[in-house]
Amino acid sequence: MTTTLADLDRARDIALDLSGWGRRFTFYQPRNFAFWGYLVLVGTGMFVFASSITLKYDAYGPAIALAVTSFAIYAALFWWFTQHIDHYAKLPAKLMVVAFLWGGFAATWVMAANANDSILALYAKSFGQSWALNWGAGLSAPFTEEIAKGSGLLLLIALAPRQVRTAFDGLILGAFIGLGFQIIEDIAYAMTSAGSQFGANQIGASIGTIFLRMVSGVAAHIVYSAIFCAGLIYLLGRPAEPRRVGRGLLLVATPILLHGTWDSLAAIGSRSALTLVGLLIAVIVIALVIVVRVYELTVRRERDFVRDVMTPEEARNVITAAELDAMAGNRKARKAYRKASRKRRERKRTRYVLNAAYDLADELAAARGADTDRVRFARAEVGRIRAGVPSSW
Amino acid sequence: MPDPETDKSSPASAPRFEPDAGWVPADERLFGVDRRTIAPTLAVFALVIVMSVVLPVVNAKVPYADIVKAGDVVELQGDVTFVPETGWGITSGVRAGNAPLSGEYPATATVEDTAVKFTVHTAPFDGDANKLLDQIETTSEALNHGRGVQLASAHTTVVTDQGKQGATARITGPRTAGVVAAFVFNGRGVEAVATGPSDTGPEPTAAVFRMIRSISHPGEGKQ
Asked: In this predicted complex, what is the ipTM?
């Protein structure tokens, strides 16, 4: 059977419809109940956090300044990395900001903090202070915090049903929710440390906490909520992601287990410092291995979308079959494509062509597959770079 | 593979129409609101209520059961100990010999008797007891912005049963009164704060001073 260009264009339209790729996100939606819910909860969280900072700034100003600066740089690096791995059917940046703010303010101050305090106190009353110190954090925070962060995704889906379509979208938004949670929680921890020595030696007291939180944060909230939210999408099902309850439950339970283990490390690895360090490294490695596997599992659908969107361009000879395979492939495929060119200059050019082809894909997505001026320009750019003609812009 | 000879089609030159994000289908409106967004929002609010209202209320209803018995000693980080008053409730901190599995005792312990609360906190500190009390005062003033609870009197000397000399000052607030004591044991500062209603009688006050005087650290003699 012969596949016509019209068939390929139709497949592209279907992929763009299903994925939501290129659709703009509007935050202000007064007729959306989730918009008001989000506004109330994030606004309340912001107020609580701002009040706390204002109250403590005169006492712990230097430590707060150090923590905010350090974690802002840390957040920027993670932001860049998360954007970097989302180069298939990209989500709008505004939606990621909305996710970040949920994690930073609503999930923390309106939900998890209150629940954690109460559960820890109840554990202490029921099983004794020592038991609560050993196991309280590991048996409260994983449930309250993962649920608090994950519940934000329910609001995000209600706010952006046309954009949040796949488990990969859940993974990315979950990572941003986790990033927000982690940054704001870390600032709060640094403030607590600043006061731990009666308000003296603030920088010395908080810098250890800041460093430890940065190192351990690599495989903490960001990873946990990325996995949890990917699982939540599988559990709920979306237009581009059929419901898979078993997989969803497994992915929702995994970060709870990882989080619980992490929070109980001091009790589990109490026999020796070496055991503790070994366990700490093991939990970080396991968490990273799991999130990489979940990434590989969820990203396939996104790559299929890229292939569907760009196949008509290959058919029209805008890009080559090798370029299409590289675009819709993984990092190794892109590397192999670049390495195929023998000369360094050619390798450099193939990288630029690939970047221009991704730009074209984004323009096609924004134009819903139509042949607009922007699309034609992006298409011309691919040809220009391939021909080695300098940019006139 | 597509066959260019049989298919000359090209993509549309204008994007297909899509309604904007604020548009709600007529059959999905409930008082103008998109009814599909109500259930997820209510689900999130239900979680918020459980976490921020139900759990704190349940916690408040459950009474403390960890009552101090005669002979109990509370231990803190850095081998600091104090003897809590019999009959008071331990609301944070652990008894000596009952360390968490990590082996590290917590830095803070609190015992309470009705509205009177006695908290001991320890951390490294470079200086003497008076300097520590000054530091506590500075931090307290910065946190309270001149309002609420304040250190109200000049420093006076207090001596523990172990013979360690410390500094104390009275605390006053709108409806609160109390005392703060500071000790420094070989680079380890100890802050003991007792607060309660202004009309607290002499009995709790005596109990608080007994607990302050019981604060000890191994290897400390009279200084």
From this structure: 0.92
What does pTM read for this prediction? 0.91
Largest CA distance in chain A: 79
Angstrom distance (rounded) from CA A240 to CA A308:
14
Judged on CB neighbours under 10 Å (0-12, 13-18, 19+), B38 is: middle
List C-alpha distances in Å: B11 to A1, A16, A222, A382. 22, 14, 40, 18
Phi, psi for A172 (deg, rounded to 5): -70, -45
CB atoms B21 and A25 under 8 Å: yes
From the list B1, B51, B104, which residue is nearest A111 (CB)?
B51
How many alpha carbons fall within 13 Å on the CB side of residue B78? Answer: 20
Q: Say how many CA atoms lie within 13 Å of A359 toward its Cβ.
A: 17
| Cβ separation A371–B11 shorter than 8 A | yes
The Cα–Cα gap between B28 and B92 comes to 52
From the number of C-beta atoms within 10 Å of its C-beta (0-12, 13-18, 19+), residue A145 rates as: buried
- Which chain B residues are Cβ-neighbours of A47 within 8 angstroms? none
Ramachandran sector of residue B97 (left: φ over 0; alpha: ψ -120 to 50; beta: rest): left
Residues 16-75 of A with CB under 8 A from B: 23-26, 28-37, 41, 55-56, 58-59
B22·A32 Cβ contact <8 A = yes
Domains, chain B, in order of start with CATH, read 8-62 (no CATH), 74-213 (3.40.1000.10)
- Between CA A259 and CA A269 the distance in angstroms is 15
Chain A hits for B38, Cβ within 8 Å: 33
Would you kindly state where each structural domain of chain A is located, as residue ranges? Answer: 27-306, 316-387
CA–CA dist A202, A61 (Å, integer): 9
Q: Does A367 touch chain B (CB under 8 A)?
A: yes
Q: Which residues of A touch B48 (CB under 8 A)?
A: 41, 110-111
Q: Can you tell me the mean pLDDT for A96-108?
A: 97
A188-197: pLDDT as tens digits:
999 999 989 9
Among A30, A1, A6, which Cα is nearest to A315's? Answer: A6
The distance of A372 to chain B (nearest Cα, Å) reads 6
To 5 degrees, how large is the angle CA A70–CA A72–CA A75? Answer: 110
pLDDT tens-digit series, residues A239-288: 999 999 999 999 999 999 999 999 999 888 877 888 888 998 999 999 99
Biggest CA pair distance of chain B: 104
Query: Three-state SS string across A21-38, please?
Result: CCCCCCCCCCCCHHHHHH
Phi first, then psi: give them for residue B202, nearest 5 degrees.
-70, -25
Half-sphere exposure of A171 (CA within 13 A, CB side): 27
Q: Which of A129, A164, A320, A368 to mutate to test the interface with B (most CBs of B within 10 A)?
A: A129
Question: Measuring CA to CA, which residue among A25, A163, A31 is closest to residue A89?
Answer: A163
- 3-state SS assignment for residue A153: helix
